[in-house]
Amino acid sequence: MGKLVLEGVKIADFAWVGVGPLTSQYLADYGATVVKVEWPGRPDTLRNTSPFKDNMADLDRGGLFNDFNSSKHGITLNMALPRGREIARELVQWADIVTDSFTPGVMERFGLDYATVKEFRPDIVYFSTCMMGQTGPSSHLPGFGNLLSALAGWVHLTGWPDREPVGPAGAWTDYMSHKVLATALLAALSHRRRTGEGAYIDQSQFEVGAFFAAPMLMDTATSGTRYDRMGNQATSASPHGVYPCRGDDRWCAIAVLTEDEWRSLCRAMGDPELVSDPRFASAADRKRNEPAVDAIVSAWTSRHTAEQVMTTLQAAGVRAGVVESGRDLHEDPQLAHRKHFVEVEHSTIGRYHCRNFGFRLSRTPSEPRWAAPSLGEHNLYVYHEILGYSDDEIVKLMDEGVIS
Amino acid sequence: MQLLEPYRVLDLTDAKGFLCGKLLGDLGADVVKIEPPGGEPSRRFPPYYLGEPHPERSLYWWAYNSNKRGITLNLESERGRALFHRILAKADVLVESFDPGHLSRLRLGYPELRRRYPGLIVVSITPFGQTGPYAGFKTSDLISMATGGIVYVSGDPDRPPVRVSQPQAYLHGGAEAAVGTMMAILERESSGEGQHVDVSIQESLVSTAVSSVVTWDITGGVQSRQGAIRSRGEGRVTYRLVWPCKDGYVVFTRLYGPGMNAATADLVSWLEAEGVDVGDLGVVDWDTFDIDRLSQERADALFEPLGGFFARRTKAELFDGAVARRIPLYPVNTMEDLLVDRQLQARGLFQQIEHPELGESILYPVEHLKVHPEPIEIRRRAPLIGEHNLELYQGELSLSLDELRDLEAEGVI
């Protein structure tokens, strides 16, 4: 691989859990030197979060942690100690970018909040990302992405109308927030290169969650429209849903958006007579008779595998896609074609797969470069090569419990 | 100066790619949306202002095309393409979301563009990517969400998997494209060269299903949907995430293990302060409590008083109490709730944006990210069809009014 896009960019990475590490991962995989700071009293929460490698809980076996932290250097630095905070300051002095995803106030207690850092590093690019943002009456409320998804409206919108809401699995707002934050962070880096000026980004993941709901919010504000969960139904298209396929818990999604697509579906199902069935003559008719439509489609899909349904319908010009499980994604021929999963070697758990991003650069592509660090894996490299400590000094810091 | 002020982005996308240019525009880039004469078909993307289907009334269009200028240009015509080349000569980035191969048929494929404009960055946003076995497949929100992996793990266990009920997939593709665009811009700042950024919406969504992906990779297990009651790991004790309350639902979870002990203790104190019989919750030593040692039966019995407490209070009462006590207990909000949320109001997310063509101002979520020193604002609402034709064709390309009339008569603009 040639020169990476962000070679030479230096990041003091204090962020933990989801959005912060996912954001710095874009930069790490694309060549930046990312020093991730943890200490045994405060490891990244995801080190303690399932799934674990072979279902054995251990700080180095947390699957989400290992997924989000590829290509980073991991150090232990006890920030609870004054000497630890001094060294953190040296790391900030070295860095181009500082990341923070703590609850507001924590970086201030470490003497590393943006206002303080700006005093000695006026050109720093610094982001803080958290549930609610740095200001406002709820800013100090702790939380996690899958709770925030409820606050931001996404739990209410996911599930069946006759049942309690279930929400999208996982920390839904995290996975929009990191994409938006990385865009702004890279823009700030570009701006700094051109002007020498730093920038501060204060992200409220709640606000990104609302931004992704913008059309609904605007509609509710202007027309009083109410948005509720509706299973897989669409307002005016039919068939539109997830249909059972051969096998255990196998499904294929089908979305018929035009009359042409309906006719193609009927032919692909081997049932061209359906085209002239007055119950299904238009989208509005099919909506009115949706249980009948869904029963006919289900009867056909049940006889085939989800993959067969997808390829048969796509060949006929009908929108269809396997409802992919974790296994399906790993075996998906399209993702394989794009080399989405990249095998890396972890220092304690051995081989596993990291994900690549959703984009490929034609001339300067990149991919996960190495596995997530075990706790303190790169202490020697970082304290020695980056911060310039001698072996004796490092031993002393270890004795003092600063590096542990 | 705004972060991306020196850059010009040409935006040829339909709904699949709006958000890419929108984010770059929010950060200061000069984004010019180029639509076919008569307007881009995604102007028909619902919902509509006051429910009226009309190409100038799509709220989806408005929300994600503000901070862009807009011109019309027929790329299918020879004259249109000649004009397009004049515009391209001044552009840094071209974002498009046509089917793979479409621009090549117009002799505007990346290899051709690269020869003429070596510094140009071309960003292509498609359902599955430019090449590969699914490259020719069609998509919709549901199909992208399904093939990205989030649908399989969402929903009640006894029903089919479900998507988020409103379109989200293309926003993920657009935001991921914006990250890719920025990578290419940063690279160009040192090399002076452009490149092709190939974005797959499916692949942009895999991050949303990361737990499912990782579970298969490191445990060989297939994660399935769990509904409102979830476990801390395969085969482990389940806890309620979504709880009914007096006027809807709230979320509170013990999914996070020891880290939630202190918050649970605070919640129990709150129940006690309000005279609720908390049963065994009152005698738990939260400093040493190990959630993972409970049996399912014991866990259900222990946390039962929470359900009764929530059921007798409204979302607002519970959230107010949670904020005061710093307990991660959140309401399951509707869109109406978001519009009056105190936190969003305090930070000024919503602003009224003028729509002079309607004589109205419309509420938008504007500053979705606080950037200092130059804040994100809506400098211009989404363009009307051809709104900036004169400004661009006459002002920048110095076409005369006669030429413009001629182009219009020929259906080029």
Can you tell me about this structure?
By secondary structure, chain A is of the alpha/beta class. Chain A has 2 domains: 265 residues, Crotonobetainyl-coa:carnitine coa-transferase, domain 1 (Rossmann fold), CATH 3.40.50; 86 residues, 2-Layer Sandwich (formyl-coa transferase, domain 3). In chain A, helix 1 packs across helix 7. The radius of gyration of chain A is 25 Å and the shape is elongated. The two termini of chain A are 35 Å apart. In chain B, helix 1 crosses helix 7. Chain B is an alpha/beta fold and 413 residues long. In chain B, the strands form 4 sheets. In chain B, strands 3-2-1-4-5-6 form a 6-stranded parallel beta sheet. In chain B, strands 9-10-11 form a 3-stranded antiparallel beta sheet. Helices cover 37% and strands 15% of the residues of chain B. Chain B folds into 2 domains: 241 residues, Crotonobetainyl-coa:carnitine coa-transferase, domain 1 (Rossmann fold, 3-Layer(aba) Sandwich), CATH 3.40.50.10540; 104 residues, formyl-coa transferase, domain 3 (2-Layer Sandwich), CATH 3.30.1540. In chain B, strand 9 and strand 10 form a beta hairpin. Chain B is elongated and about 85 Å long. Chain B starts with 7 loop residues before the first strand and ends with a helix. Chain B contains 16 helices and 14 strands. The chains are: A alpha/beta (404), B alpha/beta (413). At the A-B interface, helix 2, helix 6, helix 7, strand 6 and helix 8 of A face helix 2, helix 6, helix 7, strand 6 and helix 8 of B. Strand 6 of chain A pairs antiparallel with strand 14 of chain B, so a sheet runs across the interface.
